[in-house]
Amino acid sequence: MRIGQGFDVHAFGEGDHIMLGGVRVPHDRGVLAHSDGDVVLHALCDAMLGALALGDIGEHFPPSDPRWKGADSTDFLRHCDALLRERGWRVGNADVTVVCERPKVGPHALAMRERIAGVLGVPADTVSIKATTTETLGFTGRREGIAAQAIVLVRAL
Ligand SMILES: Nc1ccn([C@@H]2O[C@H](COP(=O)(O)O)[C@@H](O)[C@H]2O)c(=O)n1
Ligand SMILES: C[C@@]1(CO)OP(=O)(O)OP(=O)(O)OC[C@H]1O
Which of 10, 18, 61, 124 could form a disulfide with 117 if both were Cys (CB 3.0 to 4.6 A apart)? Predict the structure, then answer.
């Protein structure tokens, strides 16, 4: 077994929804990002890459590369999973914490778990999505942006 962790932040911008864990979540803001700005999937990808010391998401999908403009982050997740599997590993379990005042994540958590598990080809009960506010403190507290932290355990195939 090996373990990895990942962390990602995006600022809120114009828009009426955000992508979280591969799920479209209605919100009164969007996010500023090169891709679809899915902090959950970006943190998860970094945790998976970190578990095998394979660098980070920016090395695999450079923000300077126009191919990733507006990209669906489930494609990043699929790619990271393929990198793991071709080396003889798969995700054992993943635990993600989303940090924001709004949107409320709880009502979307099951859909996110099922979406991520579907992409990774693992049972949904091995993917955990949690959320917390920062009690109005800091950039998340001021509703300027959203953050996510992920921890992943990988197992031999
Ligand atoms: N964006 C969020 C933030 C929190 N939750 C849920 O509310 C609970 C209480 O949050 P506190 O920050 O006040 O501790 C938290 O445990 C989550 O269940 C949420 O769904 N979405
Ligand atoms: C995902 C990538 C893709 O170009 O860009 P962003 O959507 O801006 O997201 P970030 O979390 O800054 O990660 C870097 C990039 O790999």
Answer: 124
Contact 98, 129 (CB under 8 A): yes
CA distance 40 to 20: 6
CA–centroid distance, 71 to ligand 1, in Å, is 28
> How many C-beta neighbours within 10 Å does residue 91 have?
26
- What confidence tens digit (pLDDT) does each residue in 123-132 have? 999 999 999 9
Ligand at minimal distance from the CA of 100 is: 1
CA terminus-to-terminus distance, the chain: 10
The CATH number given to whatever domain includes residue 18 is 3.30.1330.50
Enclosing domain of residue 108: 2-156
Half-sphere exposure of 1 (CA within 13 A, CB side): 7
User: Closest Cα to atom 9, ligand 1: which residue?
Assistant: 132
pLDDT tens string 17-51: 999 999 999 999 999 999 999 999 999 999 999 99
